[in-house]
Amino acid sequence: MNVQVSHLWRHPIKGYGAEAIASAMLNAGETMPWDRLWAVGHDAARPEARDGTWARCLNFCRGARSPALMAIRARTDTASGAISLEHPNAPPLQVDLSLPSDVERFLTWAQALADSDRGRPAFVVRARDQGMTDTEFPSVSILNHASLQALSVAAGHDLDMRRFRGNIWLTGIAAWREFDLPGREIRVGGTVIGVRKPITRCRATTANPETGVVDVDTLAVLRDRWGHQDFGVYGEVLSGGQVSVGDTVQLG
Fold it and tell me: Which CATH superfamily is domain 4-10+20-29+135-250 in?
């Protein structure tokens, strides 16, 4: 079995844009660098979501509530901290969210994409101890192209990988084999990752990343065909190192 890394993605602002990258230096006990470094709290968020410590995803604006957000693309200048954002229905924007004036510009831009019936973007927070992933532990997500193909066939729709906001995509592994990995350690390029648990999916995956419009009930397809709403697995970096597209993966 020749398992390889096919794609790497990070999401510098939680819920606001996917960014393809060629490589990343992963550190033990940390999320992927620049992944969910920032998060956008809504006007009904709990007070503790404002201080930068990890908080539940329900405190933040995301595609499950505002599907238009799924069509945002991001690009990060890690040297300057500037993040460039693009959306088919909004003007391009470049911001440095460490600057209060840029936070205000970003919130104005973000409010135009928010679902008017849901929590509105109210503040931006920088993650302190770990990226604002959907797990209490600092996770990286690992997804499988063969599983995506199987789900696409069942849905009758060619599903874009960006629906699932993964960090590390694999090829060369049979569909759904990733669900055999929790409790095991795998070597991905120069790093060792302990696979922890499956990822249970939300409504964000029903939106098309090109348009931000809900077009496939991915959750119903998963439930009806496989009896669950899981897609991909969460892992934790145990031994840091470089990970690049094309790297070999040893499943242990």
Answer: PK beta-barrel domain-like (2.40.33.20)
